[in-house]
Amino acid sequence: MRRIAVWELGFRPFYLLASAFAALSVALWALQFSGRLGATYLAGSVWHAHEMLFGYTMAVIAGFLFTAVRNWTQRPTPTGWLLAGYALLWLAGRVLVLTPYGLAAAIVNVAFPLAVAAGIAVPMARSGNKRNYFFIALLVAIGIAAMFVHLALMDWIQWPARVGLRAGLDLVLFIVAVVAGRVTPMFTNNAIPGADARRSIVVERISLTSVLALLACDVAGWNAAAAVVAAVAAVAHAWRLALWHPWKTLRTPLVWILHASYAWIVIYLLLRTLASLSLVPDTLATHALTIGVIGGMTMGMMTRTARGHSGRTLVAGKAEVAAYSLVMAAALVRVFGAWIMPTDYMATVSASAACWTAAFVIYAVRYAPILVLPRVDGEPG
Q1: Domain check: are 226 and 190 in the same one?
Q2: pLDDT (tens digit per residue) in 259-317
Q3: How many domains are contained in the chain?
Q4: DSSP string, 241-300
């Protein structure tokens, strides 16, 4: 009988939890929104936004960083009972927001990103891996954003909860931009002969700095400035993507999903510009980021990381292609369907939700054995 390896490395439990939660979240949202779960601390769209950011996305970030930091530092990250404790803390956050116990929910949801920061800080400090210290700061910042969201929801401060949610999304966008900039050109060149994906120091600096500038505008409430910054950022990220030659990746799904997801950053920033000028609803930009960028990029990285760290070949099969296509379809329908057919709003939302759910059901079913069982090559991890 094969042993259970789910607690041997961070990506295993957290990708499994994230995919299962993503698949169940739409049905759970419907129950919560209809009031069938009784009196809950978070309600309606606030629950949905909070859980997609501090629930699903944070689970993927935790799994990715616990795995990547071990590679970067050659030092252990949380495993065994400690890793199980992290998973339990995350699960507690998902349960408590559906109860009336707001303070407990707030404490747990703020604690999780801070605990992840501590989990990666120890191996980084012991190895002297200063290059990646900023990930610790970003996780602390996400924890602070979560704290302000909960303080606002409990009326302890006069500060809109949506600002904390927006700041959290900006921080996640920065993490995506950094990680994508490191791995996408490399993965492209490794997988596709003659791809010649390149990086420009000037473009890199403008792209990343513009995201931080957008974060500053969102926290300060500078709406007009946000429109200008988002427009500049859209140009910079489009230029960055063009240097990676995305048109050369169409026959390599494990790579094109990263390029397609990154293209949604450009779409998001353009929509942010229009939304800041009150030309389109802000929700279109938000879903371009949450479904197109975050949903697509996490799906792409979860498949690649799981395959690579389980000793499997880095090739996407039919299940992976289906999951990628469904996430992209979910983004297209939710953003452009709602824009083009506003009278059929609920139909587009339902269709997008169905595509999203199907994508993560496919991932959860296909990858559960990969995440739970040991590597096929017998190596540790």
Answers
A1: yes
A2: 999 999 999 999 999 999 999 999 999 999 999 999 999 999 999 999 999 999 999 99
A3: 2
A4: HHHT-GGGGTT-HHHHHHHHHHHHHHHHHHHHHHHHTTSS-HHHHHHIIIIIIIIHHHHH
What span, in angstroms and rounded, lies between the C-alpha atoms of 222 and 214?
9
Q: Write out the DSSP string of 323-335.
A: HHHHHHHHHHIII
**Residue 326: which of 292, 364, 358, 366 has the closest Cα?**
358
247 is written with which tokens?
């048109």
Is 196 within 8 Å of 189 (Cβ atoms)? Answer: yes
Whole-Å CA distances, 112 to 78, 119, 144, 204 = 14, 10, 11, 30
Please list, in sequence order, all residues whose beta carbon lies within 8 angstroms of the beta carbon of residue 109, skipping any fewer than 6 positions away: 50, 54, 93, 96, 97, 146, 150
CA 326 – CA 320 distance, rounded (Å):
10
CA nearest to 50, candidates 179, 152, 137: 152
Cα gap 54→112, rounded to integer Å: 9
Which of 366, 286, 352, 287 has its CA nearest to residue 323? 366
Domain that holds residue 56: 1-159
Q: Angle at Cα 50 formed by Cα 289 and Cα 25, nearest 5°?
A: 85
**pLDDT recorded at residue 29:** 79
Structural contact between residues 277 and 238, judged by C-beta atoms closer than 8 angstroms: no
Stretches where the chain sits below pLDDT 50 are 1
Q: Which residues of 129-150 are buried (b: 16+ CB within 10 A; e: fewer)?
A: beebeebbebbbbbbbbbbbbb
Contact 47, 93 (CB under 8 A): no
Q: 176-209 as b/e, with b when 16 or more CB fall inside 10 Å?
A: bbbbbbebbbebbbebbeebebeeeeebbebbbe
The reply to whether 39 and 99 lie within a common domain is yes
pLDDT digits (tens, 9 = 90+) for 78-112: 999 999 999 999 999 999 999 999 999 999 999 99
Residue whose C-alpha is closest to residue 372's, from 16, 10, 128, 1 = 16
Assigned domain for 381 exists: no
